[in-house]
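Q: Sequence in, structure out?
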Amino acid sequence: AELTQKYTGNDFRKRNLIKRARSGLAGIAEAKKEWSTAAKYLKPLVDANPADANVATRLARAVFNQDTNVGDNQGQETDAAKILAALYKSNPTKVLRPEITLAQMYQVAGELDRSASLMKSASVKDEQGLATQLTVARWALRTGDLPLAEQCSNRALQIESGSMDARLVAGLTARYKKDYKRARQILEAAHLQ
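A: Exactly. Output:
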Protein backbone atom coordinates (compact mmCIF):
# COMPACT_ATOMS: atom_id res chain seq x y z
CA ALA A 1 0.00 0.00 0.00
CA GLU A 2 2.90 2.35 0.73
CA LEU A 3 4.43 1.80 -2.70
CA THR A 4 1.17 2.70 -4.43
CA GLN A 5 1.20 6.09 -2.70
CA LYS A 6 4.46 6.91 -4.50
CA TYR A 7 3.13 5.82 -7.90
CA THR A 8 2.81 8.84 -10.21
CA GLY A 9 1.51 7.20 -13.39
CA ASN A 10 -2.11 6.81 -14.45
CA ASP A 11 -4.53 7.95 -11.68
CA PHE A 12 -7.10 5.26 -12.52
CA ARG A 13 -4.44 2.57 -12.22
CA LYS A 14 -3.18 4.06 -8.96
CA ARG A 15 -6.69 4.05 -7.42
CA ASN A 16 -7.16 0.45 -8.54
CA LEU A 17 -3.81 -0.61 -7.05
CA ILE A 18 -4.62 1.10 -3.76
CA LYS A 19 -8.03 -0.58 -3.65
CA ARG A 20 -6.53 -4.01 -4.30
CA ALA A 21 -3.75 -3.49 -1.76
CA ARG A 22 -6.20 -2.42 0.97
CA SER A 23 -8.56 -5.26 0.16
CA GLY A 24 -5.71 -7.76 0.28
CA LEU A 25 -4.37 -6.41 3.56
CA ALA A 26 -7.89 -6.52 4.99
CA GLY A 27 -8.22 -10.14 3.84
CA ILE A 28 -5.03 -11.07 5.67
CA ALA A 29 -6.28 -9.31 8.81
CA GLU A 30 -9.65 -11.09 8.53
CA ALA A 31 -7.91 -14.47 8.24
CA LYS A 32 -5.97 -13.65 11.41
CA LYS A 33 -9.16 -12.40 13.09
CA GLU A 34 -7.57 -8.98 13.57
CA TRP A 35 -10.88 -7.21 13.13
CA SER A 36 -9.82 -3.64 13.92
CA THR A 37 -7.00 -3.85 11.37
CA ALA A 38 -9.39 -5.27 8.78
CA ALA A 39 -11.87 -2.47 9.46
CA LYS A 40 -9.09 0.13 9.11
CA TYR A 41 -8.34 -1.09 5.57
CA LEU A 42 -11.97 -1.63 4.53
CA LYS A 43 -13.40 1.69 5.75
CA PRO A 44 -11.77 3.85 3.02
CA LEU A 45 -12.97 1.37 0.38
CA VAL A 46 -16.57 1.65 1.60
CA ASP A 47 -16.27 5.43 1.82
CA ALA A 48 -15.12 5.48 -1.83
CA ASN A 49 -17.91 3.14 -3.00
CA PRO A 50 -20.73 2.62 -0.47
CA ALA A 51 -22.67 0.43 -2.93
CA ASP A 52 -19.93 -2.24 -3.11
CA ALA A 53 -21.80 -5.05 -1.34
CA ASN A 54 -18.77 -7.29 -0.88
CA VAL A 55 -16.60 -4.67 0.79
CA ALA A 56 -19.43 -3.17 2.88
CA THR A 57 -20.41 -6.61 4.18
CA ARG A 58 -16.79 -7.37 5.03
CA LEU A 59 -16.55 -4.07 6.91
CA ALA A 60 -19.78 -4.77 8.81
CA ARG A 61 -18.46 -8.20 9.80
CA ALA A 62 -15.13 -6.73 10.93
CA VAL A 63 -16.91 -4.08 12.99
CA PHE A 64 -19.37 -6.63 14.44
CA ASN A 65 -16.57 -9.00 15.45
CA GLN A 66 -14.82 -6.26 17.44
CA ASP A 67 -17.72 -6.25 19.89
CA THR A 68 -16.69 -8.02 23.07
CA ASN A 69 -20.26 -8.29 24.36
CA VAL A 70 -22.31 -9.60 21.44
CA GLY A 71 -26.00 -9.72 22.22
CA ASP A 72 -26.33 -6.50 24.19
CA ASN A 73 -27.49 -4.45 21.15
CA GLN A 74 -24.86 -1.80 21.81
CA GLY A 75 -21.48 -0.77 20.48
CA GLN A 76 -20.15 -2.38 17.33
CA GLU A 77 -23.30 -4.47 16.82
CA THR A 78 -25.30 -1.34 16.11
CA ASP A 79 -22.49 0.11 13.99
CA ALA A 80 -22.47 -3.05 11.86
CA ALA A 81 -26.26 -2.83 11.52
CA LYS A 82 -25.95 0.78 10.32
CA ILE A 83 -23.39 -0.20 7.68
CA LEU A 84 -25.65 -2.99 6.42
CA ALA A 85 -28.72 -0.72 6.44
CA ALA A 86 -26.89 1.91 4.37
CA LEU A 87 -25.78 -0.78 1.92
CA TYR A 88 -29.35 -2.08 1.58
CA LYS A 89 -30.68 1.43 1.11
CA SER A 90 -28.19 2.01 -1.73
CA ASN A 91 -29.48 -0.97 -3.71
CA PRO A 92 -32.46 -2.83 -2.21
CA THR A 93 -33.08 -4.98 -5.27
CA LYS A 94 -29.60 -6.55 -5.35
CA VAL A 95 -28.61 -6.69 -1.68
CA LEU A 96 -30.12 -8.89 1.02
CA ARG A 97 -31.96 -7.18 3.84
CA PRO A 98 -29.62 -6.07 6.63
CA GLU A 99 -31.44 -8.29 9.13
CA ILE A 100 -30.41 -11.40 7.19
CA THR A 101 -26.72 -10.59 7.07
CA LEU A 102 -26.74 -9.51 10.71
CA ALA A 103 -28.59 -12.70 11.67
CA GLN A 104 -25.85 -14.74 10.01
CA MET A 105 -23.25 -12.86 12.06
CA TYR A 106 -25.17 -13.51 15.27
CA GLN A 107 -25.46 -17.18 14.39
CA VAL A 108 -21.70 -17.47 13.95
CA ALA A 109 -21.28 -15.69 17.30
CA GLY A 110 -23.54 -18.29 18.95
CA GLU A 111 -26.47 -15.93 19.54
CA LEU A 112 -29.07 -18.25 18.02
CA ASP A 113 -32.15 -16.60 19.54
CA ARG A 114 -31.10 -13.19 18.21
CA SER A 115 -30.35 -14.75 14.84
CA ALA A 116 -33.79 -16.37 14.67
CA SER A 117 -35.48 -13.13 15.68
CA LEU A 118 -33.73 -11.20 12.91
CA MET A 119 -34.54 -13.81 10.26
CA LYS A 120 -38.21 -13.76 11.21
CA SER A 121 -38.16 -9.97 11.16
CA ALA A 122 -36.67 -9.94 7.65
CA SER A 123 -39.32 -12.36 6.45
CA VAL A 124 -42.13 -10.14 7.77
CA LYS A 125 -40.61 -6.83 6.61
CA ASP A 126 -40.07 -8.09 3.07
CA GLU A 127 -43.06 -10.34 2.43
CA GLN A 128 -42.87 -9.71 -1.33
CA GLY A 129 -39.11 -10.18 -1.66
CA LEU A 130 -38.32 -13.47 -3.34
CA ALA A 131 -34.64 -13.45 -2.33
CA THR A 132 -35.56 -12.69 1.28
CA GLN A 133 -38.18 -15.43 1.49
CA LEU A 134 -35.87 -18.01 -0.08
CA THR A 135 -32.92 -17.07 2.14
CA VAL A 136 -35.01 -17.23 5.31
CA ALA A 137 -36.62 -20.52 4.20
CA ARG A 138 -33.21 -22.10 3.56
CA TRP A 139 -31.95 -20.85 6.91
CA ALA A 140 -35.08 -22.24 8.62
CA LEU A 141 -34.54 -25.63 6.99
CA ARG A 142 -30.93 -25.73 8.19
CA THR A 143 -31.94 -24.82 11.74
CA GLY A 144 -34.97 -27.11 11.87
CA ASP A 145 -37.63 -24.39 12.02
CA LEU A 146 -40.06 -26.15 9.68
CA PRO A 147 -43.07 -23.86 10.27
CA LEU A 148 -41.00 -20.81 9.26
CA ALA A 149 -39.52 -22.70 6.31
CA GLU A 150 -43.00 -23.64 5.12
CA GLN A 151 -44.32 -20.12 5.55
CA CYS A 152 -41.42 -18.57 3.61
CA SER A 153 -41.31 -21.20 0.88
CA ASN A 154 -45.06 -20.80 0.33
CA ARG A 155 -44.62 -17.03 0.09
CA ALA A 156 -41.79 -17.54 -2.41
CA LEU A 157 -44.07 -19.70 -4.57
CA GLN A 158 -46.80 -17.04 -4.38
CA ILE A 159 -44.33 -14.33 -5.40
CA GLU A 160 -42.98 -16.25 -8.37
CA SER A 161 -44.59 -19.63 -8.99
CA GLY A 162 -42.29 -20.37 -11.92
CA SER A 163 -39.08 -19.86 -9.94
CA MET A 164 -36.95 -22.99 -9.90
CA ASP A 165 -35.43 -21.96 -6.56
CA ALA A 166 -38.86 -21.40 -5.03
CA ARG A 167 -40.03 -24.81 -6.21
CA LEU A 168 -36.93 -26.59 -4.93
CA VAL A 169 -37.11 -24.95 -1.51
CA ALA A 170 -40.85 -25.60 -1.25
CA GLY A 171 -40.32 -29.22 -2.31
CA LEU A 172 -37.56 -29.73 0.24
CA THR A 173 -39.67 -28.13 2.93
CA ALA A 174 -42.56 -30.48 2.17
CA ARG A 175 -40.16 -33.42 2.23
CA TYR A 176 -38.73 -32.41 5.61
CA LYS A 177 -42.30 -32.08 6.91
CA LYS A 178 -42.92 -35.62 5.64
CA ASP A 179 -45.60 -34.37 3.24
CA TYR A 180 -44.28 -36.67 0.54
CA LYS A 181 -47.22 -36.24 -1.81
CA ARG A 182 -46.78 -32.47 -1.95
CA ALA A 183 -43.00 -32.76 -2.13
CA ARG A 184 -43.25 -35.11 -5.09
CA GLN A 185 -45.76 -32.87 -6.86
CA ILE A 186 -43.61 -29.75 -6.45
CA LEU A 187 -40.30 -31.42 -7.28
CA GLU A 188 -41.72 -33.19 -10.34
CA ALA A 189 -43.03 -29.86 -11.62
CA ALA A 190 -39.59 -28.36 -11.05
CA HIS A 191 -37.94 -31.24 -12.86
CA LEU A 192 -40.21 -30.81 -15.85
CA GLN A 193 -39.68 -27.06 -15.98
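The chain has a mean pLDDT of 90.
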